[in-house]
Design goal:
The chain is of the alpha/beta class and 722 residues long. It has four domains: 2-54, 2-Layer Sandwich (Phosphorylase Kinase, domain 1); 64-132 and 339-558, 3-Layer(aba) Sandwich (Rossmann fold), CATH 3.40.50.740; 138-329 and 564-586, Dimethylsulfoxide Reductase, domain 2, CATH 3.40.228.10; 598-721, Barwin-like endoglucanases, CATH 2.40.40.20. The protein is 33% helix and 16% strand. The protein has 26 helices and 28 strands. The strands form eight sheets. The chain has a seven-stranded mixed beta sheet, covered by helices on one side. It has a six-stranded mixed barrel with strand order 21-25-22-24-23-28. α4 (111-124) links the parallel β6 and β7 (129-131). α9 (224-237) packs antiparallel against α11 (262-269) and α19 (487-504) packs across α20 (515-521). The radius of gyration is 25 Å and the shape is globular. The chain binds ligand MGD (2 copies), iron/sulfur cluster and molybdenum atom. Residues 105, 136 line the site of molybdenum atom. Residues 1-58 form the 4Fe-4S Mo/W bis-MGD-type domain. InterPro entries: Asp_de-COase-like_dom_sf (IPR009010), MoPterin_dinucl-bd_dom (IPR006657), Mopterin_OxRdtase (IPR006656), Mopterin_OxRdtase_4Fe-4S_dom (IPR006963), Prok_molybdopt-oxidoreductase (IPR050123). Keywords: 4Fe-4S, Iron, Iron-sulfur, Metal-binding, Oxidoreductase.
C-alpha cells in the first residue's frame, strides 16, 4: 500500500486528492487531501471515482486504426506513420486550409494539451482552428478584450470576502464553479451567508445554488442583458454609482441604459421592476458586492452583452478589482498570451458564413459548414484533441454526418466514442495517474493565489508516449518533419523561444541574462515539466518546480490583491464602459425585444455526477438522478397533457424524451442536460445509459454575434405529447 497526492483534473475546482494504491498500482481509495491549503479535504463524487474512471476497461490502451468499419490496435510507430501520410496527402492536394483542428475541453485540463496546443495549431498553418471556447466562454473573453484590452483578464468574485453575491446563469453548487477556481464552492457560499452576507440567484430554474440562496428570481432564458441594463439604468438614474477607477464611456453608457428602465425590461425578462431596482440598490449599498455569471448567460444569444454589463455593474458599484468585489488572480507561472496589443476580432473570417475570427479561432457553430461546403479551402482533414462535438456542439447530428465525409481524421482521445468513431486513427493519452499535472489555465482564475504540481503517480509502460509527446509528435508531423522526428527537439524550440523572449523583455526577472545558461539550469523529467519549471522561474513569485515538489499539497500564495494596473491595456489606458463594438450590439437587443416570445424555451442542466460527455462510462456515476430527462413545470405537463414521454421540436431537429415533472423549472421553460446520446461508440456502460443528444435541438445557425459563441440556452421549441 502507498499514498499518493494529486490534483483532480476533471472540473475547474482543482481539488487536492489523496489516493491509496496497492503494490500493483491499483487505486484502493480516493479522498480529499486534508493538507491541501486551498481545498482542505473537499472532494465530490467524481473526484472520489477517479480510480474507477482511470481503470475503465474501455479506455484505449494502444493506438487504433480504422479501415472501413474495422478497427484494429496498432503500434505507435505505425499510427504516427498513418497520421503523417493522411495529413500530408490532404495538404499536398488541397493546401493547409483544408485541415482543421478542434481542441476540446480536457485540452485545458492537461499539461500536454495546454502546452502544445499553440504549437500544433501554428504548425498546421490553418485558419480553421476551433475549440470548446466557442461553445463555452468566448463571450467573456470578448467583453474583457474590449473593456480592459486583454481578453485573458478575467476577474473572479472574491468569494471569501464578499458581502453580497449576485449569481446569474451559474449553478456552482453542482458545477463546482467555472472560470472561478474555488474548491468547495458550496461551502464558501454557506460561509458567505454565515458571516451575514447575502446570496441572490437569478436562474430560470430553482437550482441547488438557488436553494442555498437568500433569494431566487426566475428570469426568462436569454434575457439577462435586459435585466442587467435595468440595474445599470437604476444605478445611473438614482446616482448610486461609486466609480473609483479611471473609466471612459460613462456618458455613452448613460444614453444606452436610458432606453432600458426597469419598468420596460421587466416585461421582457420576467423579473418584477421593483426587484430589479432593489437589486441595484442592494448592490450599491453592500460594503462589498460581486456579480458573477457563467455558462447560462455565455451560451445565449446576447452572451457578450451580458458579460459586459456584469462588469459594468461591478465597476459602477465600486467593486471592480477590490477585496470583496471581483478581483484578478496572480498565477505563479508567467502569463503567456498577454500581447498588450489592442484587442481586435475579425482579422479573418470563416469561409462559408463569414463569421469573424476571435482570439485566433473560428466558431464551432460553423465547423459543419466548412466541411460540407465545396470550394477552395473546404475542410477535408481534422485533428481532434479531447473533444466530442457530436454531443457537445450545436446541431451535433449534422457534425456526426459531416465527419463521415472527411478524407482524414485523427483524434487524441482515450475513448472510441460518438466523435472519435469517425477517426482514421485514435491516439490514446496515458492513464490519468500516469500524467503529471499542473493547472496552467485554472490557476489564473483562483479565488486565492495558489500553486500545486502533481507528479505522475504511475510510470508509463515502456514505449508509451505521454500526452505531451503525442502532441509534440503531431506538431512535428504537421510542420513537415515526419513521423520519426524527436519530440525533444520541439521542446527545445519552445523552451528556447520562452527564455529567449524573457531575457529580452524589460522588467522580466531574467532580463539581460543568458538564455542558454537559464536553459541549462531548468529541471524536470519531461518536456512539460521543463516548461513548467521555466514558466515558474519567469513568474512573479520566483518559484521553481523543485519548490512545488517540496510542497506536495500545494502552496497558498495569499488572498487576492488588486492588480488591474498590471493588466489594463486599452488604448485609452482606462476601463472602457461603452466600447463601440458593444454599444453597437445593443441594436440587436432592441430588435429582439420587438419580436413575440416563443411558447417554450429550452435550456440546459448540469448534473452532479456528469462532466459534459465523458464520465457516463463509470458505473457509480450514472443512473438515478444522473439520467437524461426533460424537466417540465407540472403546470405545463398538465396543460399539454404530457405522459411519460414527449416529442420536442426546434428549428434544428426533433427528439423523443422522458418527461420529468419539476417544480424547479419555470413555466414555459424546459431543461435537458447535454452530453448524453451515447450508443455509437465502444463504451459499454454509457451505451446502456444512452439518453438523447440535447444538441440535436440546438441551432448552429444562431450565434452570439460578437463572439461567435453557440446558443444552448433560450432555444425556441415546441412540446407535444407522445
Ligand atoms: N447543449 C449544451 N451543450 C454544451 C454545453 C451546454 O451547457 N449545453 N456546454 C458546453 C461546454 S461549457 C463545454 S466545455 C463543451 C465540452 O465539449 P467538448 O470539449 O467536446 O468536451 P466533452 O464533451 O467533455 O468531451 C471530451 C473528450 O475528451 C476526451 N478526454 C477526456 N480526458 C482526456 C484527456 O486527458 N486527454 C485527451 N486527449 N482527451 C480526453 C473524452 O473522451 C471526450 O471524447 O460542451 C458544450 N456543450
Ligand atoms: N457536475 C458537472 N460539473 C461541471 C460540468 C458538468 O458537465 N457537470 N461541466 C464543467 C464545465 S465544462 C463548465 S463550463 C462548468 C459550467 O458551470 P456553470 O456555469 O455553473 O454551468 P451550469 O451548471 O450549466 O449552470 C448554468 C445555469 O444557468 C441557468 N440558465 C440557463 N439559461 C439561463 C439564462 O438565460 N439566464 C440565466 N440567468 N440562467 C440561465 C441554468 O438553469 C443553470 O442553472 O461546469 C463544469 N463543471
Ligand atoms: S469538484 Fe471538480 S475538481 Fe473537485 S473532486 Fe469534484 S470533479 Fe474533481
Ligand atoms: Mo465548459
Amino acid at each position: 500500500m502507498r499514498t499518493a497526492h494529486r490534483t483532480c483534473p476533471i472540473c475547474d475546482a482543482v481539488c487536492g486528492l489523496r489516493l491509496t494504491l496497492n503494490d500493483a498500482g491499483r487505486v484502493l481509495s480516493v479522498k480529499g487531501d486534508p493538507d491541501d491549503p486551498f481545498s482542505k479535504g473537499y472532494t465530490c463524487p467524481k473526484g472520489a471515482s477517479l480510480g474507477r474512471l482511470d481503470e475503465d476497461p474501455d479506455r484505449l490502451r494502444a493506438p487504433m486504426i480504422r479501415e472501413g468499419s474495422q478497427w484494429r490496435e496498432a503500434s505507435w510507430d505505425e499510427a504516427f506513420q498513418v497520421v503523417a501520410r493522411g495529413l500530408h496527402d490532404v495538404i499536398e492536394t488541397h493546401g493547409r486550409q483544408a485541415v482543421a483542428a478542434f481542441f476540446g475541453n480536457p485540452t485545458f485540463h492537461t499539461m500536454g494539451g495546454i502546452l502544445y496546443r499553440g504549437a500544433l495549431a501554428q504548425a498546421l498553418g490553418t485558419r480553421n482552428v476551433f475549440s470548446a471556447s466557442t461553445v463555452d466562454q468566448m463571450p467573456k473573453h470578448v467583453a474583457c478584450g474590449f473593456m480592459l484590452g486583454d481578453p485573458l483578464a478575467i476577474s473572479v468574485p472574491d468569494l471569501d470576502r464578499t458581502d453580497y453575491l449576485l449569481v446569474l446563469g451559474a449553478n456552482p453548487a453542482v458545477s463546482h464553479g467555472s472560470l472561478c477556481a474555488a474548491p468547495d464552492f458550496p461551502g464558501r457560499l454557506k460561509a458567505l451567508r454565515q458571516r451575514g452576507g447575502k446570496l441572490v440567484v437569478v436562474d430560470p430554474r430553482r437550482t441547488r445554488t438557488a436553494a442555498m440562496a437568500d433569494e431566487h428570481l426566475f428570469v426568462r432564458p436569454g434575457t439577462d442583458a435586459y435585466l442587467l441594463f435595468g440595474i445599470v439604468h437604476t444605478l445611473l438614474s438614482e446616482n448610486l454609482t461609486l466609480i473609483d477607477l479611471e473609466v471612459n464611456g460613462l456618458e455613452e453608457l448613460r444614453l444606452l441604459a436610458a432606453e432600458f428602465p426597469p419598468e420596460r425590461v421587466s416585461g421582457i425578462c420576467g423579473v418584477p421592476a421593483q426587484d430589479i431596482a432593489r437589486l441595484a440598490r442592494e448592490l450599491a449599498a453592500a460594503p462589498a458586492a460581486a456579480v458573477y455569471t457563467r455558462v447560462g448567460t455565455c451560451t445565449a444569444e446576447f452572451g457578450t452583452a451580458v458579460q459586459w454589463l456584469v462588469d459594468v455593474i461591478n465597476v459602477l458599484t465600486g467593486n471592480f478589482d477590490r477585496p470583496g468585489g471581483v478581483m484578478f488572480a496572480k498565477p505563479a507561472t508567467l502569463e503567456l498570451g498577454r500581447t498588450r496589443q489592442p484587442f481586435v476580432t475579425g482579422r479573418w473570417h470563416s469561409r462559408v458564413r463569414g463569421l469573424p475570427e476571435v482570439m485566433g479561432e473560428l466558431p464551432v457553430a460553423t465547423l459543419a459548414d466548412e466541411i460540407e461546403t465545396p470550394g477552395e479551402g473546404q475542410v477535408r482533414a481534422l485533428v481532434m484533441v479531447a473533444g466530442n462535438p457530436v454531443l457537445s456542439a450545436p446541431n451535433g447530428p449534422r457534425l456526426d454526418h459531416a465527419f463521415q465525409d472527411l478524407e482524414f481524421m485523427v483524434c487524441v482521445d482515450p475513448y472510441l466514442n460518438e466523435t472519435t468513431r469517425h477517426a482514421h486513427v485514435i491516439l490514446p493519452p496515458p492513464h490519468i495517474l500516469q500524467m503529471p499535472h499542473y493547472d496552467f489555465l485554472l490557476l489564473t482564475v483562483t479565488v486565492r493565489d495558489y500553486a500545486r504540481f502533481s507528479p505522475q503517480i504511475l510510470p508509463l509502460e515502456p514505449g508509451r508516449p505521454s500526452e505531451g509527446e503525442i502532441m509534440a509528435r503531431l506538431t512535428l508531423i504537421a510542420s513537415g518533419q515526419g513521423a520519426d522526428a524527436d519530440p525533444a527537439m520541439l521542446d527545445e524550440v519552445i523552451l528556447g523561444e520562452l527564455l529567449g523572449n524573457a531575457v529580452k523583455t524589460p522588467g522580466s526577472p531574467v532580463e539581460g541574462r543568458d538564455a542558454a545558461e537559464l536553459r541549462a539550469a531548468l529541471r524536470g523529467d519531461s518536456g512539460v515539466e521543463l516548461m513548467l519549471d521555466a514558466m515558474l522561474k519567469l513568474g512573479p513569485y520566483g518559484l521553481s518546480l523543485a519548490d512545488l515538489l517540496a510542497e506536495p499539497h500545494g502552496i497558498d500564495l495569499g488572498a487576492l490583491r488588486p492588480r488591474l494596473g498590471e493588466l489594463l491595456c486599452t488604448a485609452s489606458g482606462r476601463v472602457e464602459l461603452a466600447p463601440p463594438e458593444l454599444a453597437h450590439d445593443v441594436a440587436r437587443l432592441h430588435e429582439r425585444a420587438a419580436e413575440p416570445p416563443a411558447e417554450f424555451l429550452l435550456i440546459g442542466r448540469r448534473q452532479l455526477r456528469s462532466n459534459n460527455s465523458w464520465l457516463h462510462n463509470v458505473g457509480p456515476l450514472v443512473g438515478g438522478s444522473n439520467s437524461c430527462t426533460l424537466h417540465v413545470n407540472p403546470a405545463d405537463v398538465a396543460r399539454l397533457g404530457l405522459g411519460e414521454q414527449a416529442v420536442i421540436r426546434s428549428a434544428a431537429g426533433e427528439l423523443t424524451v422522458p418527461v420529468e415533472p419539476a417544480e424547479s423549472v419555470m413555466p414555459g421553460v424546459v431543461s435537458l442536460p447535454h452530453g448524453w446520446g451515447h450508443g455509437k461508440g465502444r463504451q459499454l456502460v454509457a451505451n446502456k445509459h444512452a439518453g438523447v443528444n440535447a444538441n440535436a435541438l440546438t441551432d448552429e445557425t444562431v450565434v452570439d454575434v460578437l463572439s461567435g459563441n453557440a446558443v444552448f440556452n433560450g432555444v425556441p421549441v415546441t412540446i407535444h405529447p407522445r
